[in-house]
Amino acid sequence: MKILMMGTGPFAVPTFEALVQSEHEVCGLITRPPAGSHRGKRKDINPMRESAEKLGLPIYDPQSVNDAEFAETLAAFNAELFVVCDYGQILSREVLSLAKLGGINLHGSLLPKYRGAAPINWAIFNGDKETGNSVILMTPRLDGGPIIKTVTLPIEKSDTAITIEEKLSLAGVEAVLESIAMLESWDGEAEIGKKQLKAEVTKAPRLKKNDGDVDWNRTAEQIFNQVRAFQPWPATYSNLIRGEQAATRLIFSEVDFLKADIDSTESNGSVVFVDKTRLIVQAAGSQLDLLKVQPAGKKAMPIADFLRGNPVKKGDRFESEFNSVDPG
Question: What's the pTM?
């Protein structure tokens, strides 16, 4: 089958490279245009572009794949199928009609749960015990088409958004190849796949910087899930207040949760236990054990190293900056 790939981020790379190595013909890559730079830092990191360059495939990066002037370029590929993954743009009905079989999309969730830009992050944030991939036949509605193939994956306590993304990106390869095999015998008109029920839809909105702010009125286990969910960005953070000193902003790199192991009448966010190697903070009906933190401008360090240069006493407290995390 003649395939045109559309993708930008790292999640799409294993599927892209597997398709190139398969019996199918991958005729090119459509990707996002470079974002430019800001204060000397590159913002146009594009793993899919790098992969396509190594493979010697043609690359196109329109500002909008739906621009009428780009339609002629798309049509010239004469692709039978668009394979879309981690691209960042929604394809119009007109664009989908330019491939004989339309398009399929590899999405990192068990649809219809977690439609949107950050499905892996919100699944971990919400404490889900499993996640997975869905391959859908594309429609102009975001992540709304019939589901052709699903793959499930457990979320372990040790997993973060980084590890789950890697696992799902690898698991997506077989799901896409199997979906393409199904489409090879499809007439393009008969019903295919499983319809998504509107009542089961949940959202996974794009992450914002203030999503990382800790709300100390949540349980320690919920904060633990937040730390895992928002790696590497926006990270999970809070301000440490020690007497009259200026607030110290700490990113929580690694934490664990305790279920009210320490009797305390302290308010949520207060330090309830501290010694040379441990710092435990009150949350809702439970306590958060800070294992590794990152002060502003420094590298992440074990809590013992932080405490060695930053004395903390019982009764000191953490305060949130925004308290506006919203899973949609």
Answer: 0.92
**Given a cut of 70, is residue 320 above it in pLDDT?**
yes
Coil, strand, or helix at residue 135? Answer: strand
Please choose, from the candidates 107, 129, 127, 105, the residue with its C-alpha nearest in 3D space to the C-alpha of residue 116: 107
pLDDT in tens, 126-169: 999 999 999 999 987 777 899 999 999 999 999 999 999 999 99
Q: 110-141: buried (b, 16+ CB within 10 Å) or exposed (e) per residue? A: bbbbbbbbbbbbbbbbbebeebbbbbbbbbee
**What pLDDT, in 10s, does the model give residues 217-232?**
999 999 999 999 999 9
Distances, alpha carbon 35 to alpha carbons 31, 61, 143, 202, in Å: 12, 11, 24, 29
Both tokens assigned to 285: 């009906």
What DSSP character marks residue 220?
A: H
Q: Which amino acid is at 41?
A: K
- Spacing of C-alpha 276 from chain mean position: 36
Task: Tell whether omega for the bond before 112 is within 30 degrees of 0, i.e. cis.
Answer: yes
Answer for the pair 19, 48: CB distance below 8 angstroms, yes or no: no
What domains, with CATH codes, occur in the chain? Answer: 2-200 (3.40.50.170), 209-319 (3.10.25.10)
Question: Do you find a cis peptide bond into 234, omega within 30 degrees of 0?
Answer: yes
Token pair belonging to 7: 């993708």
